[in-house]
Design brief:
Order of helices and strands: EHEHEHEHEHHEHHEHEHEHHE
Largest sheet: 6 strands, mixed
CATH class of the largest domain: Alpha Beta
CATH architecture of the largest domain: 3-Layer(aba) Sandwich
Helix content: 25-40%
Radius of gyration: 19 Å
Structural class: alpha/beta
Length: 294
């Protein structure tokens, strides 16, 4: 069985603009779980790998874009836990830093056009129908196994918080946080910040993963143009925060969430002296896909 401690610490973060708003900000430092199996990517993979082991599967097949943190985490986890790994990469055949590291970890890359990529189940069948050791993991580890792993973010907490914030891409991590908070009967407000444009549609995806109808708030006004999009003010914010704290945040997810917290705090959204936890979901290699902006 998998044996490794992938828990992460809680850390109070001192950043003057947030302090000036009268709140206390803490990070759940999932970004320091592992150099490559980082952030919520490990949370989402864990129960897939356990299930694959139990089913005597030895080949993890998954999907992602050219700068996918999920692909990198899968490649590293495969090497660590003795799985062969293959990834279908969306788009044209390219070489970059992230994919190069994936290959160093032994991952086979199959580049497919964007139209074919939409039907992941068919791709899996076409290439691996006769591979009895192959195990399908959806893009980003999406689904119930991923949600189950994300519940551990809450079970690891040692302190109480008035608010918990999390970045939202598929909604899986947020769903795990909501479910676990309900299980533990936490008196905490749960908030998600969409990284996608017009992200209200994510509510239906989140709700499908909830164990019962539960209350949460989804903020959709901090996408900065949409997924993997950014604006100069967000880049400035990343550089200012990271240079002041020594903690990297990425432009795809965590920077948008922290920016949302700061903006809401400046509008007196939170009670004075509130303790706010932001789940740092990793994703730092996403910086490489936008390096020209820095």
């Amino acid at each position: 069985m998998l044996s490794f401690d992938f828990s992460s610490p809680e850390e109070q973060v001192f950043y003057r603009p947030l302090g000036d708003c009268g709140i206390n900000i803490f990070f759940k430092r999932d970004d320091v779980i592992h150099p490559f199996i980082s952030g919520n990517k490990w949370r989402k993979l864990k129960h897939h790998l356990i299930n694959a082991q139990q089913k005597a599967k030895a080949h993890i097949v998954t999907f992602g874009g050219a700068y996918s943190n999920h692909l990198l985490a899968t490649a590293a986890a495969g090497a660590k836990f003795n799985f062969k790994t293959t990834a279908f990469v969306r788009g044209e055949n390219v070489t970059n830093e992230v994919l190069s590291i994936c290959k160093v970890f032994g991952m086979q890359l199959i580049f497919v056009d964007r139209e074919s990529y939409k039907n992941k189940s068919e791709l899996f069948r076409h290439y691996f129908a006769n591979d009895t050791l192959a195990y399908f993991v959806d893009e980003g580890g999406l689904g119930a196994y991923a949600e189950l792993g994300c519940r551990e973010i809450i079970s690891e907490l040692k302190n109480h918080y008035d608010y918990i914030f999390c970045s939202v891409g598929t909604g899986t991590t947020l769903a795990g946080i909501i479910n676990a908070s309900n299980q533990q009967q936490l008196n905490t407000q749960i908030h998600g910040v969409s990284a996608l444009k017009n992200g209200n549609f994510l509510k239906s995806d989140i709700n499908k993963l909830l164990t019962q109808p539960l209350k949460y708030t989804l903020h959709t006004e901090y996408d900065f143009g949409g997924y993997a999009k950014t604006k100069p003010e967000l880049i400035y914010f990343i550089k200012d925060f990271s240079s002041a704290t020594g903690i990297l945040i990425d432009p795809v997810y965590t920077a948008k969430t922290l920016y949302a917290i700061l903006d809401l705090a400046s509008k007196n959204y939170f009670t004075t002296g509130a303790n706010i936890l932001m789940v740092h979901t990793g994703g730092l290699f996403g910086l490489l896909g936008m390096k020209q902006k820095f």
